[in-house]
Amino acid sequence: xxxxxxxxxxxxxxxxxxxxxxxxxxxxxxxxxxxxxxxxxxxxxxxxxxxxxxxxxxxxxxxxxxxxxxxxxxxxxxxxxxxxxxxxxxxxxxxxxxxxxxxxxxxxxxxxxxxxxxxxxxxxxxxxxxxxxxxxxxxxxxxxxxxxxxxxxxxxxxxxxxxxxxxxxxxxxxxxxxxxxxxxxxxxxxxxxxxxxxxxxxxxxxxxxxxxxxxxxxxxxxxxxxxxxxxxxxxxxxxxxxxxxxxxxxxxxxxxxxxxxxxxxxxxxxxxx
Length: 273
What we know:
Blueprint: E1 23-26, H1 37-47, E2 51-59, E3 70-79, E4 85-89, E5 97-98, E6 101-102, E7 105-109, E8 120-124, H2 130-142, H3 153-161, E9 166-167, E10 175-177, E11 183-189, H4 208-211, E12 212-218, E13 228-232, H5 238-248, E14 254-256, E15 268-271
Antiparallel strand pairs: 1-14, 1-15, 2-3, 3-4, 4-7, 5-6, 7-8, 8-13, 9-10, 10-11, 11-12, 12-13
């Protein structure tokens, strides 16, 4: 499960030498992140008043000047004013994947400041639309108690159904898919290494329902790999997942200059003026 660091995944998205024309595109769930997933989310967190900290780790040899220091891994941590929720840009530093895609953002929350452990965590890979992650974080920010359960699975399924997504034929109470069958959201077993504060997640014999968490992903061509993936641990409140799902399935177009190769021909585009 270990992922090696590559120059392909810098701390910040690359500065594009040639900026192509901008388009309003849809559907949103296939529009990608425009190559600026860090910037778009960090701007949202800045407006919400979250504090950002840069964590740098490296190797320093004896008598080495600062300019020669080799930086090995770096992350950026954003913390809410009440310190109960945080979001970490982990793309250059995260040792595991979702659907063979590296984790870009990890979002967590705890019940109170006396505990150093997160009650729940959510994980997002590159090409999750920045608007969707921003809406999820805004919903998290407005919650007085970010780890308090609220509502049930129907909140999530109703959010996507309202935008035309289809309930799973075999399990209509746990999953849905967009009308083109490219993007999915499902309540079920979470992947390995997904962190959650509920001790039941450590008990193999626990009831399956207690271990279930929401997973979302886009697979534009079956068997050809994922465009993006998101995983929510078992204790993420359903209303927060519903905020993510409602934004993901929204029919409102998004502004893009960079289109994913795998969905370029499936996107409706209108030049932005």
